[in-house]
Design a protein that fits this description.
Blueprint lengths: L13 E5 L15 H6 L1 H6 L4 E4 L27 H13 L3 E6 L9 H8 L12 E3 L21 E3 L9 E4 L14 H17 L3 E4 L38 H12 L7 E4 L8 H4 L6 E3 L3 H4 L4 H18 L4 E3 L8 H4 L8 H6 L9 H16 L4 E5 L20 H4 L44 H5 L5 H15 L6 E3 L6 E5 L4 E6 L5 E2 L5 E5 L7 E2 L3 E6 L1
The protein binds alpha-D-glucopyranose.
Alpha-D-glucopyranose (GLC) binds next to loops.
Length: 547
C-alpha cells in the first residue's frame, strides 16, 4: 500500500474533512484529538478516500473553533503533540491516505506572540506593522478608523485597550476581536507563512487548505477607505475590492506555488475564496493553488436545471484554466445537507436554526435521500469531491443545542442573530450506546442528541442500506471507475432527471423530482443511493450504471 507516485492524484480525489475536536477523543477530556484520528485509520481506510483535510489543531483558545491560531507550527496540547501528529501522518500514509492541513493566513489569534508584542509596542513600531493598527477618527480618536465590519462582531475594529494596550489605537479584525488581521504588505508576515508551509511540507504534509484566501490583501494605502456597503466575507459588492479579492493576493500564491513545486510530488492546495465568480479560477490556477472550493452546489437547491448549469460552467472553467473542479456540499461552517435538503425550497436557514428546527416543515427522510443522491451525483463527475466528517453517516444538523452550550462566535458575538455553526460540529457517534456514543470515554464538548445512536458507525456498519454502506460502496467503486476528465450529458426528456456518462461507459442518472422514471434498459445498475425496486429510478435518487 502506501502513497502512489502520481503527481496528479488530487485532480479527481475524494478528500474527507476532519474537524479534529469533534472526530474522536482518545483521552476522555471531551475534545477530539490527534491520537483519536490515528486510532481510526482503519475506519478512514474503509471509506476509500484519497486524503484527509484536518481543520486547525494548532494551539488556540477556541474563540473561533481553532481558526484563531496561537502558533502555526505546533499542536494544541489539548489535542496532542507534534510527535502524535507525525505518527498520525505516518499511519495515514501507510494506508495510502494523504493529509492536508489548514492554513489560516488572514489573521492569527490575539494570543499569538506577534500580536502580544504588537499590543505592548509603540504606534508605528515594527511589531505593530505586522498587524493593522490605526488611529481612530473623532476629536480624540474615539471612533473606529473606517466603516469596515466584522463577520462576527459589529465593527472590524477594536480599541487596543480591549487587549491590554495602553495607547489610543484600534486594530482590525474581519472576524472576532480575538482574530487580529495580519498586514500582508509586511514582508515578515509573508516570510513567516512560507516558513510555516515549509515546516509542514517538510514533515510530509501533502496539501494545504487556505482559509479565506481572498481576504489577506487589503487596500491599506492612506487614508484608509470606507467601503460603499459594508459586507462580510463575500466580496461581490462593487467597491469592496478594498478588502476582498485583490489582484495582489495572487502574487502571494505564486510564491507559495514556487515553494510547493520544490517537493516531489509537488504539494497541493485548495483555496477557500468567497471571491467574484469570474475570479475564482485565478486562485485555482496551476501556477497558484491548483484548486479552489466551488460552493455552487452547496448553495444550490436540489434541482436538475441548476445542477446542470453549475456543472457545465465549472467544468468548462476547469478545462479552460487547467485546474481541477471541486464539488462541495458540506463543511464545518454549513448546515448539514440532509437537513438543508429536507427543508422547503427557499427556506430561511438562519430563521430555521434560530427556531431550534421548529418553524418549518422539515422532511429529514427526503432530505437524507436527496443529500446522498446529490453526493453520488458529484462523485461521478470529473473533479475532486470534498466530504465533511459525518456525511458518510447521513448525520442531520443538530438544532437544539442549548444556548448555554453554544461555542460559535457567530452566535455569541452577533447579538445572537444566527445560532451559528455548532450544529454541524457535534462530535461523531461511533457506537450505539455509551457516554458520547463512543466519541470518548466521557462527555462530548458539544451535546449529542439521542438519535445520534442510530446514525453511529456501529449501528450503520451492518446494514447494507445505511448511508455508511452506500457511501463505502460508492467510494470503493469510484476508485475503479475514475477515468479521464471528460463527461457527456445525455438528454432524458424529463426536466427533473440528469444523465451523464464518462468515457469508460460509467453512467450516472439522478432523479431530482418526485415521480419514478424508467431506467435505460440497455444499461446495468452498479450502485444506487437507495435501494431500487424494479427498473425504475425513484425520486431523490442517483443510480450509477455501466454499458
Ligand atoms: C473560514 C472558516 C471558518 C472561520 C473563518 C475565519 O471561513 O471556514 O470556520 O470562522 O474562516 O477563520
Amino acid at each position: 500500500m502506501g502513497l502512489t507516485a502520481d503527481r496528479d492524484w488530487w485532480r479527481q480525489a475524494v478528500i474527507y474533512q476532519i474537524y479534529p475536536r469533534s472526530f474522536k477523543d482518545s483521552n476522555g477530556d471531551g475534545l477530539g484529538d490527534i491520537q483519536g484520528v490515528t486510532s481510526q485509520v482503519k475506519y478512514l481506510q474503509s471509506l476509500n478516500i484519497d486524503a484527509v483535510w484536518l481543520s486547525p489543531f494548532y494551539p488556540s483558545a477556541l474563540a473561533d473553533g481553532g481558526y484563531d491560531v496561537d502558533d502555526y507550527r505546533d499542536v494544541d496540547p489539548k489535542l496532542g503533540t507534534l510527535a502524535d501528529f507525525d505518527e498520525m501522518l505516518n499511519e495515514l500514509h501507510k494506508v495510502g491516505i494523504r493529509v492536508f492541513v489548514d492554513i489560516v493566513p488572514n489573521h492569527s489569534s490575539n494570543r499569538h506572540i506577534w500580536f502580544q508584542e504588537a499590543v505592548a509596542s509603540e504606534p508605528g513600531s515594527a511589531a505593530r506593522d505586522r498587524y493593522i493598527f490605526r488611529d481612530g477618527k473623532g476629536a480624540n480618536g474615539e471612533l473606529p478608523p473606517t466603516n469596515w465590519i466584522s463577520h462576527f462582531a459589529p465593527s472590524a475594529w477594536s480599541h487596543e485597550s480591549t487587549q491590554g494596550g495602553t495607547g489610543n489605537q484600534w486594530y482590525c479584525h474581519l472576524f472576532a476581536p480575538e482574530q487580529p488581521d495580519f498586514n500582508w504588505d509586511n514582508e515578515e508576515v509573508a516570510e513567516d507563512f512560507l516558513t510555516t508551509l515549509k515546516f509542514w511540507a517538510d514533515r510530509g504534509v501533502d496539501g494545504f487548505r487556505i482559509d479565506v484566501a481572498h481576504m489577506m490583501k487589503k487596500d491599506l494605502s492612506e487614508p484608509l477607505k470606507d467601503v460603499p456597503e459594508p459586507v462580510t466575507l463575500d466580496s461581490k459588492v462593487a467597491g469592496n475590492e478594498v478588502l476582498f479579492d485583490r489582484d495582489e493576493v495572487h502574487e502571494v500564491f505564486k510564491s507559495w506555488r514556487a515553494l510547493f513545486n520544490q517537493y516531489n510530488p509537488p504539494r497541493v492546495a485548495v483555496a477557500e475564496a468567497w471571491a467574484k465568480p469570474e475570479n475564482i479560477h485565478r486562485y485555482a490556477s496551476p501556477d497558484e493553488l491548483g484548486q479552489a472550493f466551488n460552493f455552487d452546489l452547496l448553495l444550490a437547491d436540489f434541482d436538475a436545471t441548476t445542477y446542470r448549469e453549475i456543472v457545465t460552467r465549472n467544468l468548462a472553467a476547469a478545462t479552460k484554466y487547467g485546474s481541477s473542479s471541486t464539488w462541495v456540499f458540506s463543511n464545518h461552517d454549513q448546515v448539514r445537507p440532509a437537513t438543508r435538503y429536507g427543508l422547503p425550497r427557499g427556506a430561511d436557514l438562519i430563521a430555521f436554526k434560530n427556531s431550534n428546527g421548529r418553524s418549518e416543515t422539515l422532511d429529514i427522510g427526503r432530505g437524507l435521500q436527496a443529500s446522498i443522491a446529490a453526493q453520488m451525483f458529484a462523485l461521478a463527475l470529473p473533479g475532486c469531491t470534498y466530504i465533511y466528517q459525518g456525511e458518510e453517516l447521513g448525520l442531520p444538523e443538530v438544532l437544539d443545542i442549548p444556548e448555554s452550550q453554544i461555542q460559535d462566535p457567530q452566535f455569541l458575538r452577533n447579538n445572537k442573530f444566527d445560532k451559528g455553526r455548532d450544529g454541524c460540529r457535534v462530535p461523531l457517534p461511533w457506537t450505539r450506546n455509551g457516554s458520547s456514543f463512543g466519541f470518548g470515554s466521557a462527555c462530548a464538548h458539544l451535546p449529542q442528541p439521542a438519535h445520534f445512536s442510530e446514525y453511529s458507525v456501529e449501528a450503520e456498519s451492518g446494514v447494507s442500506t445505511s448511508p455508511l454502506a452506500i457511501f463505502r460502496k460508492a467510494l470503493e467503486l469510484r476508485k475503479g471507475l475514475v477515468t479521464t476528465e471528460e463527461m457527456q450529458w445525455h438528454e432524458t426528456g424529463d426536466p427533473n432527471v440528469l444523465h451523464f456518462s464518462r468515457p469508460n461507459g460509467w453512467h450516472c442518472l439522478t432523479n431530482f423530482g418526485q415521480s419514478p422514471i424508467a431506467l435505460p434498459p440497455e444499461l446495468k445498475v452498479i450502485h444506487a443511493s437507495q435501494p431500487l425496486t424494479g427498473s425504475v429510478l425513484t425520486g431523490a435518487t442517483t443510480v450509477w450504471m455501466s454499458a
